[in-house]
Each structure stands twice: as C-alpha cells, then as structure tokens.
Amino acid sequence: MTKKFDIKSTALAGSGKKRIEWAGRTMPVLRDIAKRFNKTKPFKGIRMGACLHVTTETANLMLALKAGGADVRLSASNPLSTQDDVAASLVKDYNIPIFAIKGESNKLYYEHLNSVLDFKPQIVMDDGADLASALHSSHKKLSGDILGGTEETTTGVIRLKSLEKNNLLLFPVIAVNDALTKHLFDNRYGTGQSTIDGIIRATNHLFAGSTVVVAGYGWCGRGVAMRARGMGARVIITEIDETKALEAVMDGFNVMPMNKCAREGDVFVTLTGNINVIRPEHFLLMKDGAIVSNSGHFNVEIDLIGLRKISISTREIRPFVEEYTLKKENKKILILGEGRLVNLAAAEGHPAMVMDMSFANQALSAEYLIKDAKKLENKVYPVPREIDSSIAKLKLESMKIKIDTLTPEQKKYLSSWEIGT
Questions:
Q1: pTM of this prediction exceeds 0.90
Q2: Concatenated DSSP letters for 188-254?
Q3: Is 331 annotated as belonging to a binding site?
Q4: Is the pLDDT of residue 320 over 80?
C-alpha cells in the first residue's frame, strides 16, 4: 500500500507551523503572488511534484502553489536538508503530502522521490534534477504526462542542458537558477551567508585570522569569499576557468592551485558542481585539524572514499562533524555534514528574504509553463525577462525603495543612432 506521507513525526507540527509563519513574514513577493493565485487558480486540477529542500521557505512556496489550486507532493532534494518539524506541519496543518526525513538513507531518499513520481505529476520542480533524471530513466513511461519542469540549481541546469544537447530531453524546462533575481542574490548572498553559518554552527570556528580556501568562483563562491573576508579571514580561491580566476584576483583575492593552498588553509569550502575537487593528495598536505566542507549541490566534491582509504579511524566528534585520523602522522581532518550541503546539513539554509525571490521565480515559471506548454519545445528555457523584472520590482516595492524612470527624451536617445557627440 502506498504511503500517504512519510515524515519523522506529526507531533513536531507545532514548532514547524510557527517557523513557517516566521519565514513567511520576510517573503512579501511570494505572499503577493499567493494572494493572486488564490483568486485566479492557475493550477486548478494540476498535479505538481517537487523535489526541493524541505525548509520553512519551501513550505511557503508549497502553500502558494496550493493556493493556486495545485495538488502538490514534496520530497527532499538532499538527505540532510529536511527540517522535520516543517515537514510535520505541512502534513498535519496544511494537508500536503511530504516524503522526507532528516538523515534518511540513500535508499529511502529514492523511495521518497519515487513516491512523488507515483503521483504522476504534470509539472515537476527540481533542485538538482533528480526528478527529471528519474523521468528520463527509471520512470520514462511517466514523461508523457509532463507539461514541463523547473530547475533551481546550477548543477541541475547542467544535467538538463546535457540531456538537451544529446536530444534526449523529454519536456520543456525553465532554468529558474539562471534568472537574475535568483543567481545574483540567492547564490551570492544566500549561499555566502548560510554556508558560513553552517560552518560556524558545526564547529564554532573563528573566521577572523583564519585562512579560508574557496574552490570555485561562480556566484556561490563569490558569496562565500565575500562573507569570509568580511569576517576577517584571508581568502584563497581555486579555479579552472581563466576569466573567473582573473576576476578573483581583481577582486583582491589570492588565487592558486589546490595542491599549493592545501598546506595553507584552515577552512575549505567547495562550490564547483564538479566531482573530487578535494582528493587524497590534498588531504595529505593539509594542516592537522583542517575543516573541510561542501556547499555544492551533490556530495561528490570531496573525495570521501579516497579519504577513508588513507585514514585509520573516524568518529563523530560533534554533531555534523566527522573526524578522520590519517595513517600518516595521525593527522586529523574534519569533514562537515558528510560532505553534503553544509548550509542545510548544519544550519537552516538561506534566509527567507532571499529565497523570496527564488521561489517567486519557481511559482511564476510554473504558471508560465501551464499557459504556454503547448508552444514550448523540449528545451531548457531561461526565465522570461518580464517575470525576472516583475520580481525585482515587487522586491524593491516591499523594501520601500523607489528608482528613477526614463524621460521621453532619454527613451528617444537610447533608441536612436543619429544623436552623437
């Protein structure tokens, strides 16, 4: 018999409901969208399946979609990111089926994902493209029901563009991650703050005076580097892209290969979206007590298999802190959150104020898919510019900030070629 939901305990719902309401206080854009959805019901009769981090912010997105008439199911996009009290409240107080338990095994993670797909969704919302991947492999027979999907992460967009490039993509997808009001703010300011929050909660480490190595200088890496420097750390960037490396230098950071800075770092953070960024040869060079964490989507950036092979023992020394003792010199390496997203494994993830824009993009992109699904090909599409701009406008209004507008003379000047010096 198929479970109606699978969470830790409905007894946790009381605290979860308060926390959902608290996050909603600083999500005014999504709140306004939910009010409109409640009137227009754009998702009436639509089944929506989501694989997202089960947090207070995601809960507010689910409530907005339900207000729009959607029948929603949600599973976690990471085994350690679920906030169990939030999952409980969504089930008990809002009657939204949730399949997520913090600390769930890899096997249970995929059972939960399958529970969402068994619902035969017509719109899928992904954070890492695990739902989409299943629909292109183990659940391919369900893909015919899919009107379209949305993708929240850089990693997921890469996977979906690979499917498109190989002419394998089975339905249109909106790359929510690539919206300006998503990656310029969520990736940079959200990841920047929440990653350091996770490291500090797990370790109580002092950043001032420390050397922090940031692997990858994309928007997430920029955010972490900026925040670490603001807290008094010396920051080193590692990169494989010449332009990004040059940008990091121009921004005032040291740039060097991992095999050089491995000796210098006190804290390491990977944010590349790639595999085995920190490997055994790097661990062997690190200081005794080096802190190693990941804030890229999947737990593949730190080579934990390789680390185990060069270690004689492991133990959990603090919650979400595993101490590996190396065979060489009995040196200790500290791995945070099992190498998974440290901001969600050891902290609460991004602040609601920044997720307001990201999830507004999710909600409005889903509405766009419903309206225009028949016009779209099986491709990865950017968020329409008008949606991106409308979210920025709503966010500014919620912050009581006004901006200038072009005069008729200025509009004419910008559209002409005749006027010069």
A1: yes
A2: IIIHHHHHHHHHHHHH----TT-EEEEE--SHHHHHHHHHHHHTT-EEEEE-S-HHHHHHHHHTT-E
A3: no
A4: yes
